[in-house]
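Appendix C reproduces, verbatim, an entry submitted by the partner laboratory led by Prof. M.T., so that reviewers can inspect both the input and the predicted structure.
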Amino acid sequence: MRTKSLLFYNYTVFSLLLIVITSLALSIQNHAYGNSPEKQYQGLLLKPEKTIKSYTMINQDGKETPFPTASGKFQLIFFGYTNCPDICPMTLHKIKQVIRDLQNSEEVEYYFISIDAERDKPELLKSFVRYFHPQIKGITGTIHNIKGIEKEFGILTRKFQGKSALAYQLEHSVFMYLINKQGKLMLMYPGSSSTTQIVSDLNLLLGGNKK
């Protein structure tokens, strides 16, 4: 009982720590990056755009694939895991709404990157993301490569071990990330971002931005 209480306490403390870190990051990024007045982006604009190292990942069909790459399309990306009780389903529902509301949704690729290599096998991941929308694609990989890509995006994660090997919870940061057509990270969206804000930026970019 004491172990369970300690696990819950640690999980809660880490969750609060993530909130504090996210708030500080938002404050720092708004000051350091800002938003170009002529662009009027709703997300956090990175200046300069960040080059992201590509890793060999595994797609939802079980095939190895480099990710991310310059696909010639914008890519909206979120990190999570299929056993996530709340944040991940809510965010995927938000992405579903983006797809529904976006004028040219086929010009954007949507990815859910699993941070849970041990449990999120390709077939499970595919079933999970398709529940929200068929345009959302699942990506997993080895523990080493997932950790590598987490580092590239600045993802914070922590594992809270339960009584058995697979009985654990994961905590993670909740940003969504927008990769441009050249495969570079250009915009970040905290979990509090609305569908309207994301759609506004994508419509602006698809309406004539050469990125």
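The first strand starts at residue 44 and ends at 51. Additional entries are available on request from the coordinating office.
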